[in-house]
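Reopening: structure tokens for the zinc ion complex, inputs below.
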Amino acid sequence: MTTEALEAWLSVATATGLVLPPGEMQPDNDGGFRITTTLAVAGLSVGILIVLAHDFPKDAPLVLVQDSQLLGRLPHVFRNAGVVCYSTSEGLLLNRQQPETVLTWAVKETIRTLEEGLGTSQVAEFMRELEVYWRQLGGPEVVNFYNPSSEARTLTSYSAKDNLRWLAGAEQEMPPRHRAGNKLLTTIKEKATYLPLLPGTAFIPPAPNEPFWTIDQLRELVKPTLMAIPSKRRRQLFKSGRDWNGLLVLAVPLVGHKSHVTLLGIAYTSLKGVHPLGERGSAFDLKPVQLLRWERSYLLPRGGGKMSLTPKKVLVIGCGAIGGHLAHELSQTGILYLTLVDGDRLSIENMHRHALGMAGVGEYKAIALRDELQRKYLYAEVTAIAKPIEQALDAGEIQPESFDLVIAATGEATLERYLNERLRAIAGAPPVIYSWLEPYGIGGHALLTRPHQAGCLECLYTSPNPDAPLSNRALFAAPDQQFSLALSGCGSLHTPYASLDASQTATLAARLAVEALTSSQPESPLWSWKGSDRELKAAGFKVGPRYKLTEETLRRDAMRYIAPNCPVCAFDSNTNAATNHE
Amino acid sequence: MANVQTQFDTFHSDKKTGIRLGRFKKEKQLRDKRNVIRRRLKANLPGVFAKYGEPNLVPKFKDQGSYKMNTGIKPLAGGSGYDIDQGVYFETPKDGEGAYSPLTLKKRVEEALNGLTDTIRIRRPCVTVFYKENGVEEAYHVDLAIYSARGSNSDGKDYLAVGRVGDSLSEQEWKVSDPAGLQHELFRRFEDDTHGRQQFRRIMRFMKRWKDVNFSSAGNGAPRGIGLTLNAHYGFTPTYSDWLNRTRDDLGALRKLVDDMLSRFSHQYREKRQEWGRCLIAKLPVEPVSDVYENMTLVQMTSFETKLKDLKAALDAAHEESDPHEACKGLQKVFGSDFPVPAKSDTARKAAAGAASSGLSG
Ligand SMILES: [Mg+2]
Ligand SMILES: [Zn+2]
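Re-run output (same inputs, fresh job):
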């Protein structure tokens, strides 16, 4: 904005009563502007400073309250500089073409925010942003792994070397790397008390420039909550004796949310060794503690994961280009229990199209992928079996029936047809997804199969024409074409496809997996994604008839692959499902 | 189960022996004739109307029938020959003041074409221009369907002039008719299904050829082509041996259609003939929503059903037969000598390959 435009805005704002005179405008050293003026807020005159950055209106203007008496006493006005939090920056669209409207909006929002803060909703406003105000109090950080519940209970607080501290209810709640079995951690345990406050509990949090709560203030605050707990239970929770140090965790229901809470940490020191929430004792030292929300019930949904998926166990057979991307996708949806099977090591030629990249080269893919996933995803519990699947099955190392889902992405058609037959014969076998991709970016596929339901991998190899060459009917490329290139002798065949193709196929398979695991997909569909045939044709290969179908037709055809004369599923399925001849 | 799709493909599409009437080859001759007729009518009609002291009516033309729908087949030698159907629309009301009787309007058309060929005949539903070829008197023909156009009628509908010379006024009729609407109804369900639409057309052509081979063309002995088309409309479902790749299974589709037609034969009242009897109905899905088989006698209906049963038996036998040679010999009996029969040696089973390229990766 130009000086003239700003002056024009200020004189209009003054004339219309948006701001009170006198108003003053000055350029600052950074090429921006500062406007000093006064607002009429609920009968008070509040001096403010509006700061416009040099690139305004790329960002909303900063508004600061100049009146020290109001500082820190109002919700949304922050102690450090009096910054008024009049709007969230997330999801905001500013009218860049008309910057003066942005200024007017900022001033109006500031007035509204201050008026609400001065009004009857003051406490409610503080409660809404409780976590922000608590953070301003500072104090040591403790990682929370406890999934908040509605019952008061005792937790354990752990301290390890490097000042690492965390909090959990049970061993299983903690990520694998924090558990007792991890030799890297030498831990000291302390008692912690978790207390969910009654819904409707409201208070103004301590201001950063004031003394923290006293024991009486704290007791007053939690009194109604404590009264609602049976006295016998109270005595168990707040036993006296040998309780010199500890941690209190107050779970404050978030206004307007059923299950969300704000966690406030308070460290206590008790001179007499009694619990601060017991009835006795008055010599306590209370200090604020910052709880870091690392618990799974908070983190997994934040990442877009589905909590219903977290207990699911998935067996991934094949940790190549598809399997590597797929295992990542599954972890990111919140599936924590993965078992990876692959007997091969990652070769340097596949470095670029494998999710592990150089980190996995030379390593067993299953093991390197397990380590990568456990490093990346706090809660991932990954088992690696670095041997061929048939060996692992023969040795009884894998019980397919103990999984909720099996996904095979080995790229070995013969092996997978064998697996299809073998897995379907196992009593209590889970659904199996087979996923594969085609060369030159022409497409990829994922097939969900269920034991005792018509539709299996063998259906795709069951041709109506006995003279047709053996091939997978879902393929977009014409059958029986030799795509692999011997780049360096026949020992190292290379099939041309890119990481993007593998990851798109993995995404398709992962979506199908989520549908299968959440029961939103009761059928056994074949899903395919279709890419461009440009590269395939340029390389001198042909597409088959299926490639010419539209995406919509492919979607509609999802169940049309079932072969009524399939030698595997036609007899073991107990439903008389859809056949080719509807 | 033998695979005879190759033979159905040849029977349908082979350039020499296939039954499909290409829209751009043999029909060029018909289209040329049609264009000559269009020009002739435009040139001569003003004079004809003037001669009778009638206001001039400028005709509008629309293709219709199997040519328009692309379901035409080549005629059998000695049959009625190739034809093309042409709609001729006049802005004149079907009734009220100044209305023509159907026959009078057809006579004006006939007169305007006078001398174009040796034979021009007014038939009940049309005015037909016959052409000679290689000494055959009526080798092919153009059927002109004459309409009172919707713009001139208070109900906004097109009416077909029905009546031939010698019909009394009460025997003549302006009959509501909507060939474009019919075509829309027939093909609507295949709007985004190329494979289904193509198979629908193939199956209609097979049924028409079956009719030509198995019925004498005289009179109403044979079910009308439009009737078979409607039976297919109600009884056809796209059928593939491999849905994923839309691998055609015309034998399967025919079996389903014929089964469907046979299952619809029943004892019912026939409005037009005012009789009860066992029959198949082919109801127009557009106005006048009549049964296009309404003129067939019960004796003809019985013969129709018997021949359909023979067709079913032949199709079923071909389905059961494992040798394509034998299967096609049976099919040739119902579809005629244009249906190809592969030599025995062509059909020996190839030994299955022990391995092929999988074409996939993981
Ligand atoms: Mg005709
Ligand atoms: Zn199957």
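Residues 130-300 of chain A form one domain. The pocket of zinc ion (ligand 2) is lined by residues A 456, 458-459, 563, 566, 568-569 (CB under 6 Å). Marking as resolved unless the reporter disagrees.
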